[in-house]
Amino acid sequence: MTAYLINLATLATIFGILAASLNVLIGYAGIFSIAHAVFFGLGAYAGAQLALQFIPDVLLACLAGGAISAALSLCLALPALRVRGEYFVAASLGLQMMAVTVFSEAHSLTGGHGGLVGIPPATLFGADVSAPAPFLGFALAVLAVLLLAVRLLMRGSFGRALMAIRDSESAAEAFGKDVRALKTLAVALGCAMAGVAGALFAFYMAFVNVESFTLEQSILVMAMVIIGGTATLAGPLLGVLLLLLLPAGLSFLPFIPPTQIGAVQQLIYGLAMTLLMIFRPAGIAGGRR
Amino acid sequence: MGVPFSIRGLDKKFGGLAAVQNVDLDLQEGVTTALVGPNGAGKTTLFNLATGHIIPDGGEVLLDGKSVLGQPPHHIARLGVARSFQDLRLFGRMSVRDNVRAAIEPTAWLWQPGGGVAARKREAAVDAALDRCGLTQQADARAVDLAYAERKFLSVARILATGARIWLLDEPASGLDPHSRARFVQLVRDAVAEGVTICLIEHNLDIVTELADRIAFLDRGAKLAEGAPQEILRDPKLIGIYFGEQRT
After folding, report:
1. Which of B110, B156, B160, B167 to mutate to test the interface with A (most CBs of A within 10 A)?
2. What is the mean pLDDT of residues A264-279?
3. Which of the following CATH numbers is that of domain B1-79+199-248: 3.40.50.720, 3.40.50.300, 3.40.50.10860, 1.10.3720.10?
4. DSSP string covering B161-220
């Protein structure tokens, strides 16, 4: 049972980082990306390759995953600068579809559909941290550092400028905000954090393949952020807990056959999203709209 | 008296529609100029062209005699030109205080230059602007929760706090009750007394008469006349156009 709980906690921590990273885009910068799993995947592949080819240091992998995702986030920043609203959602959908194809076909980098297997156990400065408890400790430390960084940045002028752009791009420009630079930086920050989550995920699963980085994953993370509450620090974490613990909780209910858990889960998600949008559109932890 | 902001032969077409045609306008230092004209005359488009929100097809925009044509809006804003919007465009989900803070933070990069001293100076400017606009009590309220008149004053507070020397105000007093309107007029007069150059678009001719030193009359994208308020507002032809009775 303890191992099961540590497993849930580790996944919740990794998805907490991922949801917090998407919150930078959606909640603070108003960039509704449905391609976030792409950057989660880039970080995972980068971390996995670093471990497989060079050194299985989880901190280095996080840094590499973050750097690769931040660098390639320009693929998302360019459409974000040119189109807004529903047009950007469509553009990010296109990016998500393309990325899944690339992940599936670039065998030498991603292992194709079979993925990358045999990722060595995680180390930290030479010490083995692959056991469940130390790995959870490391992941929690990463989550804490990143949440602190997001809190500091969003409470300062950078955050205010992003939120000003979110609320009115033209007014933000009229008050001297360099919208292009700020949006690019927000996208790079959000994607870098997603890359860090990806690297942790690769080590934790010891295996990565394209199935973890599809549109469904992007939508799940978006649901976590929106249900939990955008533009708050606690909201995405709350969303992660609800959406990860729900299937785990359902599996303990004796009257739901195991084969039906998936369908029940989808029904609950759908209902929860619809009710939330009607009664609490800013999410559970969010304020009023 | 200097001319800090000048527009020369500005042109803009949207498809086949000439939104602004060969418009010249000088904003003289410390002088309040009102842009008057019927709906669709091109007044707001002229503001958008002057502030870089729309790129003109031709003409020139000069700030202190130097061209700012083609520069992005944030560059022009940083040179001391502030504008408001007809639909206000407040940062709705941010607090009143953060609306003003966001407006004055100079580069809004990761960290602000100047450290604690500059930060305290900015906070003092925010406090002063909120006080002058009567919003101190509402400082922590979200912009979207303010009453209509308070929103209007917040749009002015953002400009006031920037310390900009040229203000372009797009229908800043529309829909205000008489008491708020009187407060607004006083606010503008105080700013002018401090040396601010103002250009305002306004449909309320009482406010135009109270505030404007000069009027530029626009119709269908062209400037038909410019002069002192009593001269323009007594011209039966212009008044006829304004109230839709006749067209040239």
Report:
1. B110
2. 82
3. 3.40.50.300
4. HHT-SEEEEESTTTT--HHHHHHHHHHHHHHHHTT-EEEEE-S-HHHHHHH-SEEEEEET
Options 1.10.3470, 3.40.1350, 1.10.1760, 3.30.1490; CATH of A2-279: 1.10.3470
Instruction: Give the residue with greater pLDDT, A1 vs A208.
Output: A208
Q: Collapsing DSSP states into helix, strand and coil, what is residue A107?
A: helix
Among the partner-chain residues A158, A160, A175, the one whose CB lies closest to the CB of B158 is A175
* Domain-wise residue ranges, chain A: 2-279
Which ranges in chain B belong to alpha helices (H)? 43-50, 73-78, 96-104, 115-132, 148-162, 178-193, 205-211, 229-233, 236-242
Q: Give the separation between CA B11 and CA B21, rounded to whole angstroms.
A: 5
With a CB cutoff of 8 Å and minimum separation 6, the contacts of A146 are A17, A20, A21, A193, A196
Residue A203: pLDDT band by 50, 70, 90 thresholds? very high
- Rounded to the nearest 10 degrees, the angle between the axes of helix A85-105 and helix A74-82 is 160
Q: For residue B85, list chain A residues with Cβ-Cβ distance below 8 A.
A: 170-171, 174
Task: Give the ipTM.
Answer: 0.93
Supply the DSSP string of A54-73, one letter for each residue. T--BHHHHHHHHHHHHHHHT
A22-68 confidence digits (pLDDT tens): 999 999 999 999 999 999 999 999 999 999 999 999 999 999 999 99
CB B4 within 8 A of CB B64: yes
- Nearest to A50, CA basis, from A213, A196, A217, A212: A196
